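Ticket #4471: structure output looks truncated?

Reporter: J.K.
Steps to reproduce: submitted the chain below (164 residues) through the standard prediction queue, then opened the result file.
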Amino acid sequence: MFIHFKKNLGLLAILAPNFSFKLKISNMRVKFKHIALADDDDEDKELLQEAIKRACPDIFFTLADNGAILLDKLKTNPPPDFIILDINMPYLNGKDCLKIIKSKQTTKEIPVMVYSTSSNMKDVEEAFSNGADYYVIKPNNMIDIDQLAKEICSGTIKSCGISK
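Returned output as attached by the reporter:
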């Protein structure tokens, strides 16, 4: 199972055995053609990229191993339609990279999905307060990675919060 958090839903909590699930669904009505993906974990980056390519082969990728490389690529490449950003990366982490992306006129309107192993509420809240549009905890199986890839490709990223 993977968990999506969406800002402004009012339903954010950390998954725990005694939590009940309460879903709220919203759809993003945009189909992405160019995705920037920044993650220092090559396996995580490759798994998501390959899943997205299987779901929609026409997607163009800009790949980066950390936030500093991503920011450099955003200066020289055509702007992406969507950014997928890991939190824990060397040199420039995803939190600081997100702040910079959302502070620049040329990139502040690009939707950003934070894609992390962290389910820490502080990380979730900080991501949203810094402008993230989505917070997704990295799936731990291919079925869920493929489902997320299909949502990204179709532009219908479903988001849910979990509440007690």
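Triage note (M.O.): checked the attachment and the full token line is present. The CA atoms of residues 19 and 164 lie 5 Å apart.
Status: closed, working as intended.
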